[in-house]
Amino acid sequence: MHPLLFTLVLLGVFSLLNMYIFKRLISRLFISPSSKHYFKVFLYCNLFGIFLYALGRYYIDFPSWLYFLFSLPIGVLFLLFCTAVLYDISHLLLSLTPIQENRRQFFKKSLDIGAVATAAAITSRSIYEARTVVLETKEIQIKNLHKPYKILQLSDIHIGGLIDGAFIRDIVKRVNACKPDLVVITGDLVDIDINKAYDALEEFKALESKYGTYYIVGNHEYFHGIEGIIQRVKDLGIRVLENENLYIGEEHKGFNLAGVYDLFGYRALKFMPDINKALKHRETDSPTVLLAHQPKFLQEINDIQKIDLVLSGHTHGGQLFPFRFLVSLQQPYISGLHQHTPLTQIYVNKGTGFWGPPMRLGASAEITQITLVASS
């Protein structure tokens, strides 16, 4: 979808959310008419901020501090909407509770204060969480592995807007401090025109590991010129796995590392994933680790293909807590390590960056340090 059309559709949806917030939350608060008017003006300004964010994302280069301000309204609107829904439900329950009117008014005022305080608290918390990238450490047992390997996984960085060269520089420094055997980037690396991402991508040249850095595309690369992104990443000395595999480690002591294009390729009708091609000519006596951007790529594989571990991203762990339930409708796993079948495990990275508003709630950004060890 064209960015302008996409923006107009979103603005329509956000306008409806604005109406709901005002009618079902703001207009029912025990505050003065003038205060309600100021809240209404705030909602209009917030909606206009979303429009400016879209302009800054695709058309206008705003200063970083101004872009930060324009990127907040989407998250603020969503959290206010969630607060309004909870307020609506609580208000209904209160109206149905058989208590004296004076006590009902007391509880109503308490509910109003609680709703406003909750909205302010979760907004502040979500901004803080987005600024904090956690190092998650996992030890994963793999059959037929003869020595341990340390993998650093990055995912869903979404270069563009607030995810710039300084952000990447800090991530690279933290990865190098872990002294990994290899680094993998499981998609959604670039979320902007490749010509605007050059400086940030350049920072990846400083990555250090024994066996190199490996990358697969995610769905967002298809929106911004996937051909140019793949070529630029290759120019950095990063190996792009395009429905193919290679061997990591000493002969008969390491593992196969395979990677596929994203499932979005089926819709784009180009760069389509092909698991059979990706596994062709691998060392069948050694374990196999597959890089697949979306967890639901598990639907494409079976136990006959003998894949020991899948490394994915895409979900952002829900990014903002209520979204976790929506993501679970589309993806089999949201975050963390799971035993999918007796043979195959999957680890889902919550994302190293963020998409849209610089906000996370209940789903901290992560760099994942995975140590593969032989199963006992």
What is this structure's SSE topology?
Layout: H1 3-24, H2 33-58, H3 64-96, H4 101-130, E1 133-142, E2 149-154, H5 165-177, E3 182-186, H6 198-202, E4 213-216, H7 226-235, E5 239-240, E6 244-248, E7 255-259, H8 265-268, H9 275-278, E8 288-291, E9 309-312, H10 323-327, E10 336-339, E11 345-348, E12 365-374
Parallel strand pairs: 1-12, 2-3, 3-4, 4-5, 7-8, 8-9, 9-11
Antiparallel strand pairs: 2-12, 6-7, 10-11
Count of all domains: 2
Q: What's the order of the H and E elements?
A: HHHHEEHEHEHEEEHHEEHEEE
The best one-word shape is elongated
Question: What is the strand arrangement across the widest sheet?
Answer: 1-12-2-3-4-5
Strand content: 15-25%
Q: Look up the CATH topology of the largest domain.
A: Purple Acid Phosphatase, chain A, domain 2
Count of DSSP H/I helices: 10
Oligomer state of the chains in this structure: single chain
Rg result: 23 Å
The class by helix and strand makeup works out as alpha/beta
CATH architecture of the largest domain: 4-Layer Sandwich
Largest sheet: 6 strands, mixed
List low-confidence stretches.
none
Overall number of strands: 12
CATH class type of the largest domain: Alpha Beta
**Fraction in helix:** 40-55%
